[in-house]
Amino acid sequence: MPPLDRPDPRPPGSTSNRRGDPARPGEALIDPATLMRIKSLQIRAKVTVEGFIKGIHRSPYHGFSVEFSEYREYSPGDDPRYLDWRLFARSDRYYVKRFEDETNLRCYLVLDTSRSMSYSSGSYSKSDYARTAAATIAYFLSMQRDAVGLLTFEDKITEYLPARHRPGHLRRIMATLDREPTGRATNLAEPLEQIAATVRKRGLIVLLSDLLAPTETLKTRLGYLRSRGHDVVVLRVLDPAEVQFNFTTPAMYHDVESGRELYIDPDQARAEYLRKFNAHAAEIERACVDLGIEYERVTTDMPLELVLFDLLKARIRRGRRPGRRNAPGRGGAR
């Protein structure tokens, strides 16, 4: 199996991808602006997942999705009788076959629907993008027969669906995600504390938020989630304008959190804004690394297939499946 990395978002024949890495052959990915024109959230998710799987099968990563569905990496204590030697010959890695009676992944999608997520410099907001990303992840994990739950929050938890895999549950998740959020002020401290108290069974927690909060607050509350035994993946969702601060005209700007109107000259404010923004971003990433949390920053112009790929890559890097039990007759608890 080749090293896990993002598939190339550029069409075949391009010379480099968006990170400057050497180009790799692969499928052209779906432009988010085009995807957002699809009215149905579930169809958006389905289109993204099907495009992702098709791209995997037609790229150097052929077989990744199949192996991910049917195998998991060997861990000490697994019965060597279940090793797949043909897969070892192809990938030089040890995998064991998954059993139907194993408990699959238990994943909770934790979605920030606060007022700051309503910001948009284009035709759709951070909230639109994050809800579509959550729907895509839920759709894919449901295909994998994993249990998926959903929590949405503003200044407190607003919606809670337990992690399940049963008929009709995915439709409930999609219906909840499809509701337009009211968008109250952000307060990450209380919701994250509530989430740690609510989600008692260990699993994977995927947080989708712009993380516009003090770093110490985030570190304390995310640390609380980790202390409860959860694996945590943070997907920080930002608008490109927030990252680049590419405004040029002095004007009155509306603060979506406080509701205040502020006069700003971008030429004078840019250097200080970028300094503070980048310092805050570096602190968040450092806090996640210190806590053993997978962290990815995504912008709303990034194809959703890459968000899904990052999540799966992070899940494999963890080296284990949270909430998994051994199949009967296999090795002891790990």
Automatic annotation (TrEMBL):
Region spans: Disordered: 1-28
Pfam families membership: DUF58
SUPFAM superfamilies for the chain: vWA-like (SSF53300)
Organism of this sequence: Singulisphaera acidiphila (strain ATCC BAA-1392 / DSM 18658 / VKM B-2454 / MOB10)
Designated name of the protein: DUF58 domain-containing protein
Highest taxon above the source species: Bacteria
Domain DUF58: 70-282
Listed Gene3D superfamilies: von Willebrand factor, type A domain
